[in-house]
Amino acid sequence: MRFVLRPENRNECRIRDRMDGQSCILIYTTSQCIFCPGAKEILERMLNEHGLPVDLIREVDCDNEDVRDITALPTIHVCEETIIGLPEEDTLYRALWKLRVNPCFYENSENM
To answer: What is the CATH code of the structural domain delimited by 7-107?
Structure first.
């Protein structure tokens, strides 16, 4: 299952300026970040628990990409929500719920 932003819907998704058109969730990491693997593990587990595919995640390696406006790592963007540090499950659950009810999540998926 692949999720893409169709051109006619790009203005509706506020994360569009930070994404490559293939992801609904961004996680910013570096090889030096000691909390990043744990944050990614929590994120993947929560997606699995809620029946969402892990291919919604795009990992942005701050070592290799030009990244601006990220003040701390790990940082996770889910739609309009920004989670900095290790995500608390309640916070991540609310963000994933907002993702699921966001019309662009369904409008931009090819197989939903």
So the answer is: 3.40.30.10
Give tens-digit pLDDT for 38-71. Answer: 999 999 999 999 888 898 899 999 999 888 889 9
| Spans of all domains in the chain | 7-107
Q: How many residues would you count in the chain?
A: 112
How far, in Å, are 48, 57, 109 from residue 41 at the CA level?
Answer: 11, 12, 24
Structure tokens at 53: 């595919």
Around Cβ 10, how many Cβ atoms within 10 Å?
14
Contacts of 30 (CB under 8 A, 6+ apart): 36, 61, 62, 63, 73
